[in-house]
Amino acid sequence: SFEGIGSVVHTHSAWATSFAQAGRSIRAYGTTHADFSNHNIPCTRGLTKAEVEGEYELNTGKGIVECFENEGINPNDCPAVLIHRHGPFCWGKNCFKAVENALILEEVAKMAFRTEEIAAVEQKQVGIEDYLLAKHYNRISSNWIFSNARFLEVACFDLEALAENRWINSCNSLIFSSFFLFASFICLIIN
């Protein structure tokens, strides 16, 4: 289980979902990404037919944990993952931080796509140096926020509960505890 995580947000935001559908991680190309995470945003392996037809939600959660263990990533250093052929999951200490991380991930994904397009035209290799990535991540990662208005449909749940095959929906002091219950709502983030 992932310690220190109080809430998870799952979206189908266009840019991050495009990477997930392509089965691609989001590479760290610059300091904007480094302000958010000191790792590439990983993409999980695809689930097998048996995993999808069986306990799909449980196997999705197991896939996230497996991905982070295999990549040696601390989930507190990279608050997002892309689910292969599906979409992004982001987390934080509470529902509000998880939503903020989803907004940031979407902007990071958009910039990564555009960086790849520009680099392809100019036939350049792109990527951030390890020392620059570390400098930016360690400098302000916990205080960084984008200033865009967005609508996101989110479902908040406890990741540890997901790994235990039960979903607990939590958003700060609001806790709904029921087997496979989702708390879906629209969050308007306005600066």
Secondary structure layout:
Blueprint (H helix, E strand, L loop, with lengths): L6 E4 L3 H8 L9 H6 L12 H5 L2 H16 L8 E4 L3 E6 L2 H28 L7 H11 L9 E6 L3 H5 L4 E4 L2 E4 L6 E6 L2
Antiparallel strand pairs: 1-3, 2-3, 4-7, 5-6
Helix pairs in contact: 1-5
Name the structural class.
alpha+beta
> Helix amount, in percent?
40-55%
Order of helices and strands: EHHHHEEHHEHEEE
Note the overall shape.
Answer: globular
What's the story with the biggest beta sheet?
3 strands, antiparallel
First-residue to last-residue Cα separation:
33 Å
Report the sheet-strand fraction.
Answer: 15-25%
Read across the widest sheet, the strand sequence of neighbours is 1-3-2
Q: Counting H and I runs of at least 4 residues, what is the number of helices?
A: 7
Overall residue-averaged pLDDT value: 77
What is the rounded Rg?
16 Å
How many strand segments?
7
In the predicted model, the low-confidence regions spanning at least 5 consecutive residues are 141-191
